[in-house]
Amino acid sequence: MNKDGVLHFLLRHREADPVSFHMPGHKAGDLYRENGFGDFLDHIMECDITEIPGADNLFQTEGIIRVTMERYRRLYDAEESYLLINGSSAGLIAAIMTCVRPGGKLIMARNCHKSVFNGLQLAGAEPVYAYPEVIGEYGISGEISPEEIRRCLEENPDAEAVILPSPNYYGICSDIRSIAEEVHRMGKILIVDQAHGAHLKFFDRYTEGAPKAAEDLGADIVINSIHKTLASFTQSAVVNLCSRRVDRYVFEDKLQMIESTSPSYLLMASLDINALLLEEKGRELIRNWEQELNWFYEEAAGLPGLRIMEHPLLDHTKINLDMSACGLSGAELEKRLLEKEIFSELNTGNILMCMTGIGNTRRDFARLLQALAEIGTAEPCRHEEKPIFTCPPAGRLRQEKIPAAKQRVLLEEAEGRICASSLIPYPPGIPLACPGEVLDRETLEYAVLLRKRGEKVIGIDDQGRIIVGA
Question: Is this structure's pTM higher than 0.85?
Answer without folding.
Answer: yes
